[in-house]
Amino acid sequence: MLKPATTDLDALKVLDERLRWLSSWTIHHANHIRESADGLKVGGHQASCASMTAIMAALYFHALRENDRVAVKPHAGPVLHAIHYLIGSQAREALENFRGLGGAQSYPSRTKDRIPVDFSTGSVGLGVAITLFASLVQDYLTAHGWLDDNDRGRFVALIGDAELDEGNIYEAIIEGAKHDVRNLWWIVDYNRQSLDATSADRMFERFDEIFKSCGWRVVELRYGKRLQAALDANKPLKNWFEQLSNAELSALHYQGGAAWRKRIEAELGKKAATFLKDYDDEALAALFTDLGGHCMETLVEAFDAAQDDVPTLFIAWTIKGFGLPFAGHKDNHAGLMNPTQMAALRDAMGVREGQEWEPLEGVGDNARTGVEALIDRTRIAREKRSRSFGTTAIPAIPAPAGDEQSTQAAFGRILLDLSKAGGELADRIVTTSPDVTVSTNLGAWVNQRGLFRRREMADVFAKAKIASAQKWSGTNKGQHIELGIAENNLFLMLAAAGLSGDLFGTRLFPIGTLYDPFIARGLDALNYACYQDARFILVATPSGITLGPEGGAHQSINPPLIALGQPGLRHYEPAFADELAAMMEEAFKLVDDPAGESTYFRLSTRSVAQVERSDESWRAGALAGGYWLRPPGPSAEAAIVAMGAVMPEALAAWDELRVDVPGLGLLSITSPNLLHRGWTQAQAARWGGRREPSHVETLLSALAPGAGLVTIADAAPASLSWLGGVLGQRVAPLGIDRFGQTGSLPDLYAAYRLDQEALTEGVAELLLAHEATTA
Ligand SMILES: Cc1ncc(C[n+]2csc(CCOP(=O)(O)OP(=O)(O)O)c2C)c(N)n1
Ligand SMILES: [Mg+2]
Q1: What does the alpha-carbon distance between residue 392 and residue 162 come to, in Å, rounded to a whole number?
Q2: Atom 1 of ligand 1 has which residue's CA nearest to it?
Q3: Beta-strand runs (E) in 361-450
Q4: I need a labelling partner for 41 at 20 to 30 A (CA). Which of 78, 125, 612, 706 fits?
């Protein structure tokens, strides 16, 4: 790597200043100049931006190569927009409309921003960790021959120091160590301040130990060149400086030169007298702010020196609000400069009034050529990358044979059959699981397709000829990524693999399995994956109290409610194997369709008798969220509405009641979430003048007005009870609303009223109530 010319360093320093100005101005404009329509605070984080403009200038205008990808600390979003404004890929209107509808987003967004954003950020910690899994996906693609060596890049995360408190970061680096991850740069903006105040001192030296023990190189950029030289020349001064607490340091930075002088005089006396003589107050303040993260020489040198693929944590010391009037103040996180302070900053930066948006305003003629050259040379993408969709033919997926089966077993069987049949889809599937591969029925697939390991991993048990149903060797052609038990990692893995078409131009079909209750464990990461429009299939099994004796603390109650409120995720809860096969085919299509989404399957270990089908008419309804398994008679007064594993009870109750309740129907619900979505969308369309009924309205209108519905699911009853609101039908909801227990299925179903008797009683009660009101 060539040493950057001095002129480049000067230009980078100019760009650092430009970024500080433009990010401050963007936020100021939105808060103080743009007209407010609602009187609400707009907000933005001038201090958090100023803290890392030098780091980002060094990165974007010097270090980044075209294939590198970056997750930017959420509250430094305006700096990223300023960078794209300088290189011509962000419009002034978007900056003027910062945090307005359609304007530059508060936090960098892959889907909503018009600039290329590699990873959305917002929920701190997640943007950091996804880069690690993206790097693993890159290794996966390279090993499988889908990514050329020349197209490989580095994955960079720009991290706030308080963000390092997020546990998911450590879960990720532990997993990363197992997989030997590489090509990662995580750069900490070490301003020692969080949202509330200055951060605790005690973790100070621990972060590097933690990272080092996970195989990372840690590079601490504590001092800039000038401060380093000054401290090296005066040992007592250095010792004194290094024992200052985070709070003391920040306070001194805020107070400025006179305060530094006073403290040093008081505490070092003669030992620092000569040193102090060389600096007036202003120079003294400037010297002590020369921390590593603000010194361009230091940053450029450090980045240039880390050109191998060892994962590297840079701890760049900075001052929150560097160069702004509230630098170092503990309350500056959401602090906004007032108009007077902003005017002073404008003058100090040589920006003429009225020229605030001029990209290179205040840059003198001498410097301009160098700055323009550097802007031209930046290798980062200027346009959003095109997304890779529609690449893979999805074959028809037949239902696994068998009169009695569970949906979980059918899932394993479908994958096994796909694997045996071979073909492009099977090759592009990558499975992953947090230590529940075997117990979620992925075992047969893994036996066929193997574990993914960049370096070969022998199956010791197989070599020793110890009998086992499970082959457990890894190669770089394997298609299953085994994770430790950390559900956050599962969802971040799915997010990264689900973005492979966007990040690397090669679509993968990621399938992740876990137990249904543990979705809650990784919920924010799941939301994060959906928020970025990553495409994957989530298989959650077993679920509900239906796991019976194995129940313990593993009964899931509310995931269907989570799915009901989760954008970007479709919930399917099949009762039968043929439904699951149709849904998996659909889910694969949705992964590879620009207008698609991810799919969540809620499956069960309960083996149930499969139903006879006379034709395929159920199929479209099952995919749309529900169908009449036993169609109602004309003007039926009641229906049983059931979902998933309790379908045998529903069928039995229907069989028993149909004589006494003529026309009784049995509605099989396969996706409350799709039905609800269709319902509200149809409503919105009606306001736009269109009058098509939604699927759920069509289904329910087969019943008499005022008919009663007994809903049943091995889940929170609210998953289905809302159906009564669609056409104003009365509902008797059955489901689980207290913690489960272990027990045999008949015992549990009776105790929790998920049985045939509860259904019969429910129907009777509804009919009696109906008679009473109509009598
Ligand atoms: C998961 C999550 N919790 C809380 C927040 C709110 N929040 C945003 S920034 C922040 C503090 C960040 O401090 P630091 O990481 O040190 O960044 P700095 O602004 O100092 O650079 C908090 C608590 C969030 N965005 N995400
Ligand atoms: Mg901080």
Answers
A1: 42
A2: 123
A3: 404-405, 429-434
A4: 125
